[in-house]
# Entry
Amino acid sequence: MKSYILSLLSVAEILHLVNGQTGVVSPLAGPCAQGLSKVVCINKYGAVMPYHFYRQASSGGLEVTYGQTSVPNDTSFAQVNGADFVVFDKTKGLALLGSSPSYEFVFSVLSTIHEAPVYVASQNKLYVSQLAPGLLPQLVVDLSANPPTLSNFSPNPPIYAPNGGTFHNGLIYFGASGGIDNIGGMEQRSGIRTVDPATNKSTSLLNNYFGNYFNTIDDLFVHPNGDVWFTDPDYAWFNKLTDTPPQLPAATYRFRPSTGATYLVEDTLIQPNGIALAPGGQTVYITDSAGENGDISATGRGGSSFNTTSHRTIYAYDLSADATYLTNKRPFYLAQDWIPDGLKVAANGYVVTGAGKGVDVLDQQGSLLVRIQTNYTVQNFAWTGPNLNTLWMVGYGGISRVQWNLTGQDLTSSST
# Structure
């Protein structure tokens, strides 16, 4: 009888019992399905790890990923660090990945922030920004070329430091974060600008709040009614993209281009960052990336630092029926790695965010389904292709893409 019981227990489980530990998930990780390479499934979210496990807290410029957690008493966990996709919910995760998901690092780029990816379907091009002090040229990826090509791009007139971007009614909308007295022979301030991809002409829609400069128009979306919702944190000052310290509290706004009016809609977040509208228009998501913060004083242009115990959270809000204000703020997801930066909602309502060296996919309840793992910090991403099932990711030093089953919202549709 004893030998029968022992045969039902793994060696690892016996060791845990000897050590007085119960409930251990074993194995923690393993292959998800036959034929899926570089895809690892985490069993039961790794809810009970065998002692002594340890994940060093990220701090300063040191990012410690989930896969770098030390779990010496379960060798299966070593598979996580080398995977392209880490699946936490097997049913939902494998469905969104599809039968042959792939990850590819495509371009090495400057070791600086890359943001505001906007897909223009009529051209089959992806527009990408570069954020560095004094840098004007942006980038464009020609997806019709095989392999895709990367080249410089600059609208007329140029736009300094676009940090957020989207597509609406045939135009690219950029949240320009930079502010400087003279760059390229002209003054630029943080604001909202559009670019007509057919003519390359840029137009300024907004550059002040009753005479005050915006701090860092960071991310935005355009509601079907034409209103532009945007976040305004302090990062341009930390990143030396502006010559003026913040004049306004970090906040989120709604701008109505038809009247020129700007409305404050949220001022409780410390560093509001990514913002996205769910399909159906009933829910707005905003990230608070205060885990990455700095000194906003006139003498404080010393950059920012990371604090793992500060806010690095996505919040959900109900959007009013007339699409003018937010209610029912609630925490939705605490980023398991670094800060939640770029934020978008897939066509099926799943929430996707760039967080550290990867991208997290969450269901409508805020449960982590899948993580894409990268070798660079991802700031933002955009869906591309005729079926909107190719995800291009951009960030510090890299541009990469994923092929999967999760599709993006169709921004060419007036109802989106």
